[in-house]
Amino acid sequence: SKVLVTGANGFVAAWVIRTLLEKGYKVRGTIRSEGKGVHLKKIFADHGDKFELIIVEDITKDGAFDEAIKGVDAIAHTASPFQLAADDPQELITPAVNGTVSILKSALTASTLKRFILLSSTAAVISLLPDPKPFTESDWNEQSIEDVKVNGKNANQVNKYCASKTLAEKAAWELYNANKAKLSWDLVVLNPPYIFGPIIHEVSSPAALNTSSGDWYNSVVRPDMGGKPLDQIALVGNAWIDIRDVALAHVLALQKEKAGGERLIILEGDFSYQDFIDAANALSPSPIPSHTDMPKGNPAAGKILKPIFPYDASKAPKLLGPELVYHTKEETTRDTLADFERRGW
Ligand code: NDP
What we know:
Belongs to the NAD(P)-dependent epimerase/dehydratase family. Dihydroflavonol-4-reductase subfamily. Residues 3-261 form the NAD-dependent epimerase/dehydratase domain. GO terms for molecular function: methyltransferase activity; nucleic acid binding; oxidoreductase activity, acting on the CH-OH group of donors, NAD or NADP as acceptor. Pfam families: Epimerase. By secondary structure, the protein is α/β, with parallel strands linked by helices. The chain has a single domain, classed as NAD(P)-binding Rossmann-like Domain (Rossmann fold). It is built from twelve helices and ten strands. The protein has helices spanning 11-22, 38-43, 90-108, 142-151, 157-179, 211-221, 223-226, 230-233, 243-255, 273-282, 315-320, 329-342; strands at 2-6, 26-31, 51-55, 74-77, 115-119, 186-191, 194-196, 237-242, 263-265, 269-272. The strands form two sheets. The protein has a seven-stranded parallel beta sheet with strand order 3-2-1-4-5-6-9, sandwiched between helices. Helix 3 packs parallel to helix 5 and helix 10 packs across helix 12. The longest helix has 23 residues, at 157-179. The structure holds NADPH dihydro-nicotinamide-adenine-dinucleotide phosphate (NDP). The site of NADPH dihydro-nicotinamide-adenine-dinucleotide phosphate (NDP) has 23 residues, from helix 1 and strand 7. Residues 7, 9-13, 32, 36, 59, 78-82, 95, 119, 121, 165, 192, 194-195, 210, 212 line the site of NADPH dihydro-nicotinamide-adenine-dinucleotide phosphate.
C-alpha cells in the first residue's frame, strides 16, 4: 500500500520514509520545491518507483493536497515549522494549523484512505505547573495558547512553537470528530518530545541542523559553539525519544487497528544533556576519535534532577505493541556521534 508523507525532506520525515520503504510500503513524499528532492531521490534510489515525490508549494492553501492524496492508503502529516526564533507567532501557527486543516479537508474526500497519522508533539500536552504531575494524553497545553493570545510577539519563544502544535492538533481532532461517522479512515496522533539520533535528511553543516538535532549537537558535542556554559548543561533537559523509534511508531500506528482514534505520547524517558555527555564519555572505543576535546560537563549531575515534565507514557506501548522497544541514551549517543564523525563534524 501507498503512504503519503508530507514535508519529506525533514529530519523526522526522511526516517519515516526510510522505515516505511524498508517495511515494503510505497511512499509519495511532498516537498515545497524541486531542489528539496534531489538528496531524497539519491538516498532512496534503491527503492526505484516505490518512492516518488510531489511538489506542494503552499500547504496552507485550500485544496493544496488534493492531487497529492490521490490513491494513497495512508497519510503521515509531518510538515510543520519547528523553530524557536519566530518573531510573529503566526509564522509558526499559520502553516501548522492551516497546513493540517488543508490536508485533512482533502482527506475528507478520499475514498481509498484508511488511516491518517498526525505528527503532533508533547509540546501540545505539557504546561509549566508549580507541582508537576505526570502528563497523559488527556492534557493540553492551554498555557501556550494563552501566552500567545495575550502577549503576541512578546510571548515566550517556546510557547509560540507549543501553541502552533497545540492549535494544529486541536483543529485536527475537531475536523475528524465532526466527520468521522462518514469517513473510511481514522486519525492517530503521535506526541513525541525531543527527538534525537543520526540524521539522513540533507544537512550541509551543523549550523543547518534541524532544531532538536542542533540542540543536541550544541549541548553534547560542541557546547562551546552553542554558547551554553558547561556547568548549566546538566540542568537543561526534557523528555526524549530516538528518531528511529519515532519512525517505527509511525509504521506501527498504520498497522495496529486499535491505535485508531487515539492520541499517543511516545517517549523513552527524561534526559538532561549531561546524561548524553556522560554516555558519550563512557563509550569505548570513542565513536569520535578525531574529537580530542569531548566535553565533560559536570559528570553525573543530570541524574539528580527532577524532571520538569514527568509523563505517564504507558498507553502507546500497549496500543503499538511489543515491536516498539525504545533506544537507550547509550545507543542513541553512539549512533549519533558515529554519524557526526562520518560527516567530519
Ligand atoms: P525539520 O525542520 O527537519 O522538518 C520540518 C519539515 O516541515 C520540513 O520538511 C519543512 O520543509 C516542513 N515545513 C516547515 N515549515 C513549513 C511551511 N511553512 N510550509 C510547508 N512545509 C514546512 O524538523 P523536524 O523533522 O524535527 O519536524 C517535523 C515535525 O516533527 C514537525 O511537525 C515537528 O513539530 C514535529 N516534532 C519534532 C520534534 C523534534 O524534536 N524534532 C519533536 C516533536 C515533534 P522545508 O524544508 O521546505 O521548510
